[in-house]
Write a structure and sequence with these properties.
5 helices, 5 strands, 26% strand
């Protein structure tokens, strides 16, 4: 179970994707400084394979067809690697409807994804029979 301080939270412009504020956990997970994040939008740090699903969900949320969404996606870390996150998006009620905002809450799930990938590769090798066979057995 996650500790509360490990949940990354950002306030984001729902139309442009611009970050308005981020907490310390969001900064840590993204590997970027607060100033860097506040000059970026979420699309610029999202893996290209994950972009369309989130854009589609954002369009549905902005049109009022869904009240938020959750997905697993990858953010590009400052050092170039990709970090898997479990992300929840929830709209924020604002007086000025022309400037919608949402909360983006992320949890780093990279270790879990790596373990799943390792387990799947091992299972595939068992099924295909490609595990290395011992070359010889020595008896005592």
């Amino acid at each position: 179970m996650s500790q509360p301080d490990s949940l990354g939270i950002a306030l984001v412009d729902s139309l442009t994707g611009q970050f308005y504020s981020v907490n310390a956990a969001f900064i840590k997970i993204s590997g970027r400084t607060e100033d860097a994040l506040l000059n970026l939008n979420w699309m610029s740090i999202t893996h290209s394979d994950d972009l369309q699903e989130e854009l589609s969900n954002m369009a549905l949320m902005n049109a009022g067809k869904i009240s938020g969404f959750q997905l697993e996606k990858r953010y590009r870390h400052r050092d170039g690697k990709f970090v898997w996150v479990n992300m929840t998006i929830a709209p924020v009620q604002v007086e000025d409807k022309s400037q919608p905002r949402h909360l983006c809450m992320i949890e780093d799930i990279t270790a879990r994804k790596q373990a799943e990938r390792g387990g799947a590769e091992f299972s595939d090798s068992l099924i295909s029979g490609s595990l290395a066979q011992p070359k010889s057995c020595k008896s005592r």
